[in-house]
Structures are given as structure tokens and as C-alpha cells.
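Service request form, structural biology core

Requester: graduate student, group of Dr. S.
Request type: structure prediction, single chain
Budget code: on file
Notes: please return the result as C-alpha cells.

Sequence provided:
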Amino acid sequence: MKLSLSPLQSGGLLAAVLLLSLSLRSSAQIAGGTPPPANPTALAWDADMKEYHAKLGDPKAEVFFLVTNTSPAEVVVNSVHTSCGCTTAHLPPMPWKLAPGADGRIDVSIDLTGKTGLIIKTVTVASTAGAKELQIRVFIPDPQVARMENMQLAQGDRQAVFKDSCVRCHVTPGVNKRGAELFHAVCGVCHEAVHRASMVPDLHHLNHPTSADHWRIWITSGKPDSLMPAFSQSMGGPLTDEQIESLVDYLVKANPSMDANGTPASH
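Core staff response, request fulfilled:
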């Protein structure tokens, strides 16, 4: 027997089928743990963008981002991708689960080798709350420009090389060193630089006689009205008397005294 339904009955049946389908789908999602729709506001970040102003010689830029789960549900971070190979993100193992109210941190490191000027890197965080792009802007000084600025600073204060950010290059490398090792760590920064300033002498090719007293006076007191600072601790420098004597001994042996013609002064 063929069953015949009126249009009204057909429409009611179709609605019932759709309702049942949606009900079954919802039940399956709950039973299978299907995540709720993305909620971009669930994670509150301390900033969308961070800046890093590098100093001359900085090997890398390091910043961090703080995040808080402000939603009433758990948020799971499934992946983090950086914009290039020189940028690395450090965070807990995946999947990283943030309970309601929990805080977290992502540390980002950027290799600055061979880079100058402004560089922009990104870190993309994919989670059950959605995707979030974090940006890092790094300002890297040009070595030649920074060098000129440092020279101008030293002309106004020759002891400036032992202060502030200059300590990293002109003081720290010489800590606890003696003799040749101390010379190359501290003195060589200026006197053996690839782009040595014209007013900085090449100590291996002097055209005037030298002696232990000559070296001792120059290292201890420097030269007023020049770029040569006083290295003695008694005059605001970083070296002890013992370190200065070790330099004197090294220089006497490594740089024999020469006369104006460039021949050994003893001849």
C-alpha cells in the first residue's frame, strides 16, 4: 500500500529529521570531545608587538610574551611557528594546556648575525582559541655609524670606553687575564682592529724607540687629549698593577724597540 502524505505532513517530517540529525551531531561532539568554536579573546597577551634595540655586537635579540587564559574553559596551544629559521620560540611541550586563569610565557630569540637596520619577525601561535600573530621589531645599529659615534664619545671623555655598554667590549674580556691573552682581549680591540682608526697606532710597527717605562706610562696613564684612556685602576681604568706589568713584559718582547728608520734601536 502506498503511503501518501500531505505537504504539511511532509514538511513536519523533514523538520523532525533535521532536528534529530542536529541532536545526534551535538551528542557525538560532546561524547567525542570535539573542541568548542574558537574564541580569539580567550587568551590575553601582554603585547601584540615587542621592540628590541640591539647594541653593537649583540649576538641575538631576546624578548618574551606573557599570556593569560581569561576564559572559563581550557585552551590548548597546538603549534607555534616562526617567520624564519633565525627566530626560535621557547615554550612548554605541545600540546600546551592552559587552564582557566592560568598564565604562560613564550621566549623568543633572534639571531642577529650579519644583520643591520630594522628587521621584523613574527611568531604565530595556533590554539583552540584561534590563531594569534606576535611581532618582534629589532633595531640593529650599523657598525660603521656606531664606531663613529663611539669615537666622538671617546674624544669628549677618553675613559668612556670603560663605562656603560662599552664595558662589554673593553673591560669584561680582560677580567683575570694576563700578558698576551690580556693584550689581544683588551688592547687589540682598537690597536689590531680590521678597521683601525687612523689616529690609533699599530703597536707592531712603531717608528720610535720604546722601553718598559714607555709602555708602563702609556698603559697606566694613557694620553690626555687623545683617544688613549688610562687603564690603571688608580686612574679610573679596569687593570690592576699586576695586569699592567704583565702587559709591559709582553710588549717589550713582542715589539722590539725601533728607531725612526724602522730598524731595531739597539743596532
